[in-house]
Amino acid sequence: MTPPEFLLASLGSCAAFYAAEYLRSRKLALTGVRVSVTAEKLTAPARLDNFRISVVSPVSLTDEQRQAMMRAVHHCLVRNTLVNSPQIAIELEAHEDAAAHSCTATPS
After folding, report:
1. Torsion region of 30: left, alpha or beta (phi above 0 gives left; psi -120 to 50 gives alpha)
2. How far apart are CA 9 and CA 5, in angstroms?
3. Tell me: the pLDDT tens digits for 2-20?
4. Which pLDDT tens digit goes with each residue over 25-53?
5. What percent of the chain has pLDDT over 90?
6. Secondary-structure percent of the chain, ordered helix, strand, coil, rounded to 5
7. Domains of the chain, with CATH numbers?
8. Distance CA 34, CA 13 (A)
9. Is the pLDDT of residue 105 over 90?
10. Which long-range contacts (CB under 8 A, 24 or more apart) does 69-72 make?
11. 11, 82 in Cβ contact below 8 A?
12. Contact in structure between 14 and 78 (CB atoms under 8 Å)
């Protein structure tokens, strides 16, 4: 899997967890929740956007249960992380041993 596919899988598994937990805690179903996640690949900068999470319940739900299950899925930690523009710091550490194996260019 590619890193973007892992991101989609993480988002999908998180949504599935919350949906399944909602059904399990109310003794509506123990298995059978299906989730799919899609996103568009955009450029400038290259990124994924317009995520779409589709949740399929294995049992019929009343309107009230549907709304409650949607609220449960909205508690997904991965979803909330993406929705709230996380701060991401990138650090680079170069070990001295790595420098001995690096290529160096000779000026001409």
Report:
1. alpha
2. 6
3. 999 999 999 999 999 999 9
4. 999 999 999 999 999 999 999 999 999 99
5. 86
6. 45, 20, 40
7. 3-100 (3.30.300.20)
8. 10
9. no
10. 69/19, 69/22, 69/23, 72/18, 72/19, 72/21, 72/22
11. yes
12. yes
Residue reference for tokens 């319940």:
57
Question: Can you give the pTM of this predicted structure?
Answer: 0.83
Phi/psi at 93 (5° precision): -120, 125
CA dist., res. 3 & res. 103, Å (int): 28
Q: Are residues 23 and 57 in contact, defined by beta-carbon separation less than 8 angstroms? A: yes
Between these two residues, 102 and 29, which has the higher pLDDT value?
Answer: 29
User: Would you state the structure tokens that stand for residue 59, as one six-digit string?
Assistant: 């049992």
